[in-house]
Amino acid sequence: MKYYIIAGEASGDLHAANLMRALYAQDPACEIRFWGGDAMAAVGGTLVRHYRDTAVMGLVEVLKKARPILQRLSFCQQDLLAWQPDVVILVDYPGFNLKIARFAHRKGLRVAWYIAPKVWAHKAWRVKALRRDVDVLYSIFPFELDWFRAHGLEPRYFGNPLVEYVAATPFQPLGEGSVVALLAGSRELELQFLLPRFVALEKLMAADPRTAGFRLVLAGAPSLTEAQYRRYLPADSRIELIFGRTYDILHQARAALVCSGTASLEAALLETPQVVCYGFHPLTFAIARLTVHVKYISLANLTLDRALVPELIQDDATPERMFRELERLLWDDACRQQMADGYAELKQVLGGAGASVGVAQDIYETFARI
Known about the structure:
The chain is of the alpha/beta class. The chain has helices at 10-26, 38-43, 59-64, 66-83, 94-106, 127-133, 145-150, 161-168, 188-206, 226-230, 246-252, 262-269, 282-291, 299-304, 319-331, 333-350, 355-368; strands at 2-7, 31-36, 46-50, 87-91, 111-114, 136-139, 156-157, 179-183, 215-220, 240-243, 255-259, 274-278, 311-313.
């Protein structure tokens, strides 16, 4: 079979790469053409566009890049028509992929959506497009299932792919010294918001005898360059920037400050005590307050439906608040144990390994017989 896969950011690249491995194992003679990143390229297939050229979020940011987005959309549509895949596999990234799903459906191409878009939180009207344009929808969070069913869809759940990926990843030590991990996100606008606050936090930690000796290790995202990070780090900063070792950093860290998203779930699966931090352009945030309808932003809290990890959003994400929450995670044993117990429950709710293999087998069996 011929699979055309579209992933538009770092987390999608990771999940899609694991899915690709499983597809090659299930269907060794298959052909894969994809939009994605380095993880997918390492598996094989033909890379059409790297997600570094496509990742964008937030109303203000999208408006600034409207023309190149439309150009990429047109290019993708023509590429699909020219290649004529047996199935188009869309991986999250709803702003772009919903348009591709509509186009593919109209042109008679079959569509599978892996990692269901979070329409239960934002833009619920998009569920109509999913019902109309998507043949099979795969969820990776059990709490989503009832919501989709109530809106006329029957999603398929084979577990969360991060569970198997984290469990299979070996760890290498980072050297001596106690570590506080910093994960500032995978997009430029996230760096703009969080890195100045992390730099201010560094000064607060240096002024306190109990935290002055900690190493602050910043995990570099593959979608960003060292120059993008250095733009926000003063020359005298002690923050260590390390690429390609996010799991090593989280595994060794006594605590972490984590940008909301996949990274917060990874920290939970690695059992790292964490504070989730997030913010937007002020206009984007003002609009989000009116349109986003969720109790929590971190995936661990959403999955357990309770505030297991602290969340500091927008105006609450000050260096002083970060420092206070970090102190609790570093020194309060009862707080650390409560979070550890919650992480154990989270793993049980998500289920065991095998998500990528299950989805690949289901895609092959579903679309091979149509």
